[in-house]
Amino acid sequence: SGWMNRITLGRLKRAIMNFDLKTLDLAGAVTEKCDLLVVLVPDGFKPGGDVLSSIAAQALKAKDFETKPGKSLQLYQAPGISARRVVLAGVGKADARSIRQAISGLGALFRQVGLKRAVLCLAGEFSAQAVGAVVQNVAHACYVYTATKPKAEACTLGRIVVGVADADAVADAFGHSTAVVTGVALAREWGNRPANHATPSHLAEAAKALARLPGIRCKVLGPAEVSRLGMGAFLAVAKGSEEPLRFIELRYSGAAAAEAPVVLVGKGITFDTGGISIKPAPEMDEMKFDMCGAASVLGVFRALAELQPAINVVGLIPACENMPDGRSIKPGDVVTSMSGQTIEILNTDAEGRLVLCDALTYAARFKPAAVVDIATLTGACVIALGGVRSGMFASDDALAAALLAAGDVSDDLCWRMPLDEDYAEGLKTHFADVGNVAGRPAGAVTAAKFLQRFVGDTPWAHLDIAGTAWKGGASKGATGRPVGLLVHYLLAAADNARDAVASKPSRRRIRKTAAPAA
């Protein structure tokens, strides 16, 4: 597994170098030698005097092409154009959603075997956020899972040039996006691997591999250490599996040691059968995705290693399987969490909150500025929000606003959900301090209320990614969300901390001169 992790990290390291940013207009794009030239054409396109502009203008006039997202026109070896293939692609308003729609429709083109160099020319003035969306969606389209498919054809595209009107103006956004895509790819890779290729021990090896990157350290605890910490809830979930649990602690140190870190806690259930409260057989294979919260934490640290922002971040991953066995916890069992609170297990399929609650208690030792947990926690959140937005619960308005803003910037959207105290009523039980479920109504909210009991006064947010972490059906696979949201949140937090330091008055003592005698 260590060898596979090194290969994965090496491939992802090279992937970040695949993107180049270049000041390029349509007249310059005509001379670019490449296998594929994609021209992104927005609403209100103003043609110049070059060959590409002429073709686009004629096609628009004849209604053979539209700037609507998803509409495209393909050309082959067009006279006067160096590229072998040319695609005109409409991007509408050129916002993140329109760009996502346009590029997703071209995914098969980017993955064609033999394609080595592509140029994407943005025809007009595009915002920095739009440029970031181009990078992220092209990377998403190029991703091919091969870990357990040795005969699969990997994407051969080795170089992608993004041509914009002014490269300097969007350089920061471009750099952020290229770092994010490496993190997203790592999260997708681990999310997609089958449970027998992504055990708790495998996740620990992946975390140790990250510790070879600048600024990152890793510590891994096994069952004995977790037991000594008193993590009774986490231990209870893991006891039904032959795979030993792992508690992973990652640290990125980009600021002064005295600066309080942000703690990210990722749910790492590497396979979830439901335990004794076993799940139905159909689609149970998708429960390999129940560790996508953990995968997103790995992805964030991969991006941090590239960006090196001035912030301290701790990543905590409680990793185990939830299996039915003679040793498994049973409905009605009572366990004691690390916090000392007792929990009645009313449903063994509500296991994610049990491993998270002990990790949240552990997080307090870092005296964090904020804690964000990420988990494929409830089917109820899928019913509420579908696969468009992640559910976000927050005890602090400023933290909620920061996460919402980061989601908007990264096109990795979330939506704030309620945390009214009345929702906690259903968690009361006669036999313990708290039950682990509260019935079907508002299931995502009551799950969040359970977790809130273990965070104290620290600003805390919970991201329920059950609807956004993976897709089913024909496009089945992990999405890598919410790596983009989390990275942009951390970058903004680093900027805010820097601005706060800069705005503090100087501590230098000003020498006072004596007033002249009257």
Low-confidence stretches: 1-17, 508-518
**Category by helix and strand content:** alpha/beta
What share of residues are in beta strands? 15-25%
Please state the average pLDDT score.
93
Q: Helical proportion?
A: 25-40%
Name the overall outline: elongated
Give the helix tally: 16
What is the radius of gyration computed over CA atoms, rounded to a whole number of angstroms?
25 Å
Largest sheet: 9 strands, mixed
* Alpha carbon gap, first and last residue: 84 Å
Number of strands: 20
Describe the 3D structure:
The protein is α/β, with parallel strands linked by helices and 518 residues long. The chain contains 16 helices and 20 strands. The strands form 4 sheets. Strands 7, 8, 9, 10, 11, 14, 15, 16 and 18 form a 9-stranded mixed β-sheet that branches. The protein has a 6-stranded mixed β-sheet with strand order 1-6-5-2-4-3, with helices on one face. A 3-stranded mixed β-sheet has the order 12-13-17. Helix 14 packs across helix 16 (483-503). The radius of gyration is 25 Å and the shape is elongated. The termini are far apart.
Summarize this structure as a short list of keywords or feature phrases:
518 residues, alpha/beta, 9-stranded mixed β-sheet, 6-stranded mixed β-sheet, elongated, disordered N terminus, disordered C terminus
